[in-house]
Write a structure and sequence with these properties.
With 156 residues, the chain is mainly beta. The chain is built from two helices and ten strands; from the N terminus they run βββββββαββαβ.
Length: 156
């Protein structure tokens, strides 16, 4: 192991050329401390002050000044369509289900219970494999698990 550590994250557009990249699922992009290996073999430890939600296009800033780009992994999703997409989106949000909102469809992780509920409400579901980048929380950047402004985590 090289002893490389990342104690900070740079947002999309706030970093230069990447030395490597990590492909992480939506769940894996919520982390505090973890050993990671980039697609090109660059090994490092992510050791952040608090649990953080990462977005595709963010980058780990390594202790030697290099950057490792974060990419969203393809995941098993439902593409949700229907005649009343705002209503369907409301029901997804009411169940605190992460949702990627697009012009003509919603993308959610494949959950058979949520899928059945949506079909019952008139939605059409298509099983797809795609990168997942759901909307962030209303009170902060990325995921929020509390109803306080700036809350981004629920612990280590």
């Amino acid at each position: 192991m090289t002893g490389l550590v990342s104690n900070s994250i740079r947002g999309f557009g706030d970093w230069a050329e990447a030395a490597d990249f990590c492909v992480l699922s939506y769940d894996d992009r919520f982390l505090r401390r973890k050993r990671l290996i980039g697609a090109g073999g660059l090994c490092f430890v992510c050791d952040l002050e608090r649990t953080t939600s990462l977005n595709a296009g963010d980058a780990f800033e390594l202790s030697d000044g290099r950057f490792v780009e974060v990419r969203a992994a393809p995941e098993a999703l439902f593409a949700v369509t229907g005649p009343d997409l705002p209503r369907l989106a409301w029901h997804v949000g009411n169940r605190h289900t992460p949702c990627q909102i697009e012009t003509d469809r919603l993308l959610i992780q494949r959950d058979m219970v949520i899928g059945h509920m949506l079909e019952h409400l008139g939605a059409s579901l298509e099983e797809i494999i795609a990168p997942f980048a759901p909307e962030g929380g209303a009170y902060g950047h990325g995921r929020t698990h509390a109803h306080e402004h700036g809350a981004t985590a629920h612990g280590d």
